Amino acid sequence: MQVNDSKRQPKQMNGFRAFFQAMSIKFKYLDPWIFCSIVGLMIFGTAMVFTSSTSMATGSATSFFVKQSIFAILSVVILLFLFAIGIPWQKRSYRRTVKFSMIGLVIILAYTRFFGPVTSGARGWLYFFGFGFQPVEYFKIVMILWLAMKFSDVLKYKAEPGRQLTPMLLNWHITLLPVIGMLLDLTMPDVGGFGILLAIAGVMFLAAGVPAVWLCLVVVLIITGLLIMPILIPYLQHLNFMPYQLQRFEAFVNPWSAGDSGHQLINSYYAISNGGLFGRGLGNSIQKLGFLPEPNTDFIMAVVGEELGAVSIILVLIVIGIIVWRIVMYGTRTRNMEFRLILYGAAMFIMVQVLINLGGVTGLLPITGVTFPWISYGGSSLLAWGIMMGIVLNIIGRLRLEADRER
């Protein structure tokens, strides 16, 4: 028996050693720029959640900080797990997972739209055992995977005689579920989430080969809608159509005469102007003390500007720019169309969410309740970003490994 045990121990040790060697080789291909930028943003965001939430916390002043820290750690764990595992991109198991995830999330969105609790004038959250999450955050990720998978299938056959690419890409088998999900999100109503979904889908359609004129037409319609919104607001208010969201559009047009929604934007102006170039100092924000409605989520960048100045906002945008640049760089280098579309979709996801959040804070866009990636408070958002970036880094790791083998 002793001999057998002694034989087992070296085998077990060899097994552990082989596992850690494999992991060390795998992590060699983890993009350090993206990973370190994400971790840095989450550390900075956790600190800003702490300083922006002190006036909101009930009970312990550190409650928001502790929750954000836990979810930040979980987000990194999910990211590293998805990076390290071998995702079976070309196998049926992966395709079935994406398919059933898409169907399941559309069903969850429908349930949320019609039966979910109303929060701040809209339905968009579900709660389980005290934990709230937004299904649309995960729908964005699955929509990227769905469109990339379907478009890559279509593009394999585009060279066949008699086949027109655009009708194939716009086939209802591809677009039906994304369109249903987007419309459900819009009618919750979640204008910000709908805008992000529309931008992601637009850039993926464009990258897949749909003529730019189609997308330009959509952009023209959206801009036209924004331009005529000031004319439509009085009539829509008379019909009691989306009153909470209309107040936000009215505040966008003229914040000085838009009631509570206008005061949100005005206090955001005050916060940014008070901060100046270098800020009032960490923890010294005045506007977070009951003046800004959501100082730790929607308006956290206004608090960043007031406490740490415009320089800090610029530095955050530089870090975000590094992440987007690295993702797009790998997307342009790969010949795998599915990987390229996922990377482009993820880059657009980050970029549009940042632009909508900062646009709302500065008054360049209507306030839509969109959070700032990795910095705003929110466990659901952090977990979703962990999933998205874990998938992105998994793809980039494969591309780095392939490039290393070709040398």
From TrEMBL:
Where it sits in the cell: the answer is: Membrane
**What would you give as a GO molecular function for this chain, any one?**
lipid-linked peptidoglycan transporter activity
Keywords assigned: Cell shape, Glycosyltransferase, Membrane, Peptidoglycan synthesis, Transferase, Transmembrane, Transmembrane helix
Q: Does the keyword Transferase apply?
A: yes
Q: Which residues cross the membrane?
A: 33-50, 70-88, 100-119, 125-148, 169-186, 192-208, 215-236, 308-329, 341-368, 374-397
Q: Name one Pfam family in it.
A: FTSW_RODA_SPOVE
Functional description taken from the UniProt entry? Peptidoglycan polymerase that is essential for cell division.
User: What name does UniProt use for this protein?
Assistant: Probable peptidoglycan glycosyltransferase FtsW
**Catalytic activity from the UniProt record:** [GlcNAc-(1->4)-Mur2Ac(oyl-L-Ala-gamma-D-Glu-L-Lys-D-Ala-D-Ala)](n)-di-trans,octa-cis-undecaprenyl diphosphate + beta-D-GlcNAc-(1->4)-Mur2Ac(oyl-L-Ala-gamma-D-Glu-L-Lys-D-Ala-D-Ala)-di-trans,octa-cis-undecaprenyl diphosphate = [GlcNAc-(1->4)-Mur2Ac(oyl-L-Ala-gamma-D-Glu-L-Lys-D-Ala-D-Ala)](n+1)-di-trans,octa-cis-undecaprenyl diphosphate + di-trans,octa-cis-undecaprenyl diphosphate + H(+)
What GO cellular component term, any one, is given? cell division site
